[in-house]
Amino acid sequence: MQKKVDVEKALERKYPEQVVLVTTRNKQGKNNVMAVGWVTMASSEPVMFVLGIDEEAFTYQNILETKEFVVSFPSEKMAKETLFAGTVHGYNRDKIKESGLKIQDAETVKAPILVDAIANFECKLVEITKPGDCPLIVGQVECAWENTNKKLKRLYTVGKNHKLAGVRIKK
Ligand SMILES: Cc1cc2nc3c(=O)[nH]c(=O)nc-3n(C[C@H](O)[C@H](O)[C@H](O)COP(=O)(O)O)c2cc1C
User: Fold this and answer.
1) CB of 38 closer than 6 angstroms to any ligand 1 atom
2) What is the mean pLDDT of the chain?
3) Cα(155) to centroid of ligand 1, in Å?
4) Contacts of 103 (CB under 8 A, 6+ apart)
5) Does domain 15-166 have CATH number 2.30.110.10?
6) Cβ 63 vs Cβ 69: under 8 Å
7) What is the Å distance from ligand 1's center to 149 Cα?
8) pLDDT in tens, 82-116
9) How big is the CA angle at 151 (ends 169 and 140), to the nearest 5 degrees?
């Protein structure tokens, strides 16, 4: 049975929602990382991701400036770092150093990949559109990496107020 409710109330039932970390490096060479839940694939050939990123985010400014970024899938072990990346702006902070996230050079973009993530996707900006109140950033994947540890579980937002946890897939 369905009960009609406010949109906000029904949205409380959307979890689990995937979360990714987006890294950027601006022209001054400063690395940054932010958490993004509004993400999905936008194309399979070529592979593209679309991310909803607020204009106020340092990441948004960096993507406008450099036209590139990395989409990284955090593992369930990265919940603390993901929450930090998603609750502090990087304008005056070095979130990668402060969180202890390990980084490695990417191949096709200047933004770093995250060593302990499950997978990393180097992306070049294709376009930014704004159908509602949030800019949608479309990026084409130029290079991809996966963690050699196949047992890692991806991190998801499993409830309101950034409740993060690993979601296990039953085999
Ligand atoms: C789990 C989680 C998911 C988030 N999803 C988004 C999102 O989809 N879009 C967005 O603009 N901000 C999102 N945020 C908030 C940003 O990560 C946050 O504003 C961050 O401080 C921006 O960092 P920056 O200014 O260094 O780029 C999310 C935060 C968390 C914890």
Assistant:
1) yes
2) 96
3) 15
4) 23, 31, 96, 112, 113, 114, 115
5) yes
6) yes
7) 27
8) 999 999 999 999 999 999 999 999 999 999 999 99
9) 80
